[in-house]
Structure prediction request, 360 residues.
Amino acid sequence: MDLMARAADLIAVPSTADRPEELRRALELVLGVVGPGFTVERFSARGKPSALVHLPGPRPAFRVLLNAHLDVVPADSYAARRDGDRLYGRGAQDMKIAALVLADVFRSLAPELPYQLGLQLVTDEEVGGHDGTAHQIAAGVTAGFVVIGEQSGLRVVTDSKGILQVRLHTTGTAAHAAYPWLGDNALLRLTGAVDAVLRRYPVPPAEQWRTTVNVARIESTNRAVNQVPAAATAWLDIRFPSEDTDFAGRTAEQVAAFLAGVSGAEVLVDNLGPPHHADPESPEVALLQAAARKAGYSGDLLRKHGAADGRFYSARGIDAVIFGPGGDGQHGPDEYADLTTVLPYREALVSFLTGLSALP
Prediction:
């Protein structure tokens, strides 16, 4: 595979959530790497296309499933640029390079392995994953072990945080700004509610494996400076580990009631996804770590603060790990893939998949 040419073409596709045609174009480019001779099952949910690729015949229960997402967050430019051992561009690290490698490895190994290997390509991970990976799982797709090619520098991610996105809403009484005692300022009520949440979950001074809260936006219905606001809303993004029983294992209704008690505000839950966990002592994880070490990397276990599609498999009792090449700057203007890690990444995947034959 001419990786650089393929990567430049794929990165140039502005495959953002609001461009369904570009999502389909990115999907077709990666399916082109796989080539003919395989069954391609196509799925679509709410305008988000995805595909499942396997050997000809009925869909099996896969021994291993390789998972990649092809959507990206918006950028000012979608051109790829190489500088030495770095390939810059939106999606270079997250995770179009890895998707190409996974497709190439699948094409090479799937016909030869003594077990069923599948390739899952989705286009909605950046906006929640419900119309790609989760949609396919609901349609009956299953596996014994899942490798997600998100960036990890050839370390093995067995844990990632859950995601909770909520709105805090407060109401008050409008009045003339010159006579604030005649009104009840909803915005002041809201900032007090936000402060109460942040007191319970303060922003850590450095990386820590605990619940974090990001205040993404605060808004009032007010459009006049000389008026006391009668309503206000704050949008919060909360990431939580499985150890935090305030959120882990709770329903949306229970979470809303809990945060209402903390903040005193009305709470609306927009998104709730559980933490992801895979057994770090499993033979598959040990074999993948050994494959990374054989390729010259540590293969250390890693925990990720961001949510990923592995949570949908974890919720079904299926071990899923993140294992990808290196790079930095995801979602930023200087996002890049570390090209020195790409060949070792492919070698580690091949070593893992071929070595898996010896496991029960």
Notes: The two ends are 32 Å apart (CA to CA). The longest strand covers residues 162-171.
